Automatic annotation (TrEMBL):
Alphabetized Pfam families for the sequence: ROK
Sequence similarity: Belongs to the ROK (NagC/XylR) family.
Family matches, as SUPFAM superfamilies: Actin-like ATPase domain, Winged helix' DNA-binding domain
InterPro entries linked to this entry: ATPase_NBD, ROK, ROK_cs, WH-like_DNA-bd_sf, WH_DNA-bd_sf
Name used for this protein in its record: Putative ROK-family transcriptional regulator
């Protein structure tokens, strides 16, 4: 059994203030089940650590009014979501409310030095813009397997040059604060749990369908990463024995058959063969030399049969993998996110149909399969949660 140990009292206190806002000392004692002397000692220590401050008087509960406590308004967390083709950076306050956001295209294959330099440049711009004087914590997600314990990517298929690169160590040294590194789909799951459709749901699967495919497994109130950090790597489950070659070196993987890169490949083939008039017209325009998932979505919206088939085929393959996971893990929700979630109802309906048809009836009797509520912000939201947790846990 995978057991998530309860957090220390001071961590629970800081998370409560992060998630709920100012709370009176009296209510803190009740919620955390701490004696008054113990609570006062914890508060005094966290004030000295510049993590919390007093925030005036609470409303009377019938006796002497208690003092409100809140996170120090000067707290700043940097949240970074590295995708295969983009960099998203968000700066937040202690309550994880966004203060500034930056996004730019990037190629993860350019290597860690070039990519992390762009991250540093964006954070430097935020500092010049007056967003922060110093960072208290940094959270970053990368599109590949990660050793969460060591803070390094491990043999990531689409990230040449990143294997065992000391991402956490370099960020910690650069900014003089705790840093945490995780897989991109894990941070999306954490983000959706914190502020999205899965808020307060303890057992769910977050499926990212972007350039690749991955799954964040949220069980018993926490992310299940597995022994080495690669749990949920469903993009490399084989679905067709004689399918196309995958970036991982195997053939017929889910990611090789349906993902941003695979869908673009199939769209180009359909356009060049004339099978899809909508895609052929787009490719033949003077401004387009390549096709993307967006072109397929637009073609499907216009009623192009081939575009609709490409989306349904992808949904069927994703659904067949998820059906197995549903029968195995019995989650209470499945959340679909990532860039290809924008393919819309056709994709979602096909995934639902296959999951409900192929999973055990007991596991699907009350199983919503829904789109991410946070969309493109799921990753940075989760990275901010991880950054804040890292800071809170070090305040011992």
């Amino acid at each position: 059994m995978y057991v998530f140990l309860p957090a220390a009292p001071h961590v629970r206190l800081l998370r409560l203030l992060r998630d709920q806002g100012p709370v009176s000392r009296a209510e803190l004692g009740d919620r955390l089940e701490l004696s008054r002397p113990r609570l006062l000692a914890e508060v005094e220590r966290l004030v000295a650590a510049e993590l919390i401050v007093e925030a005036g008087m609470a409303a009377s509960r019938g006796g002497r009014r208690s003092t409100l406590v809140e996170l120090d308004p000067r707290l700043r967390f940097a949240a970074v979501d590295l995708g295969a083709t983009s960099i998203d950076v968000e700066l937040t306050n202690g309550r994880l409310e966004p203060i500034a956001a930056y996004r730019e295209p990037a190629d993860i294959r350019s290597g860690p030095r070039a990519t992390l330099q762009r991250v540093n440049d964006l954070l430097a711009k935020a500092r010049i813009d007056g967003v922060y004087d110093r960072l208290n914590g940094v959270g970053i997600g990368v599109p590949g397997p990660v050793s969460f314990r060591d803070g390094v990517p491990v043999s990531p298929p689409i990230m040449p040059g990143w294997d065992r690169y000391p991402v956490r160590e370099l960020l910690t040294r650069e900014y003089g604060c705790p840093a945490v590194v995780d897989n991109d789909v894990n941070i999306m799951a954490i983000g959706e749990r914190h502020g999205g459709v899965a808020h307060s749901v303890d057992d769910f699967l977050f499926v990212k369908i972007g350039t690749g495919v991955g799954c964040g497994i949220h069980l018993a109130g926490g992310v299940f990463r597995g022994v080495d950090g690669c749990a949920g790597d469903i993009g490399h489950i084989q679905v067709e024995a004689h399918g196309p070659a995958c970036s991982c070196g195997n053939t017929g993987c889910l990611e090789a058959l349906f993902g941003g890169a695979a869908l673009a490949r199939d769209a180009m083939a359909a356009a060049r063969s004339g099978e899809s008039p909508a895609l052929a017209a787009r490719l033949g325009s003077s401004t387009t030399t390549t096709l993307t998932a967006r072109d397929v979505a637009d073609g499907a919206a216009e009623g192009d049969i081939t575009c609709i088939r490409l989306i349904r085929d992808g949904g069927r393959r994703v659904g067949s993998v998820l059906a197995t996971l549903v029968s195995f893990a019995n989650p209470s929700m499945i959340v679909i996110g990532g860039g290809l979630a924008n393919l819309g109802h056709v994709l979602l309906a096909e995934i639902r149909s296959v999951v409900y048809r192929r999973s055990l009836p007991l596991a699907t009797g009350n199983l919503p399969v829904v789109l991410s509520e946070l969309g493109s912000r799921a990753g940075v939201t989760g990275a901010a949660v991880l950054a804040s947790d890292a800071v809170f846990e070090q305040a011992s």
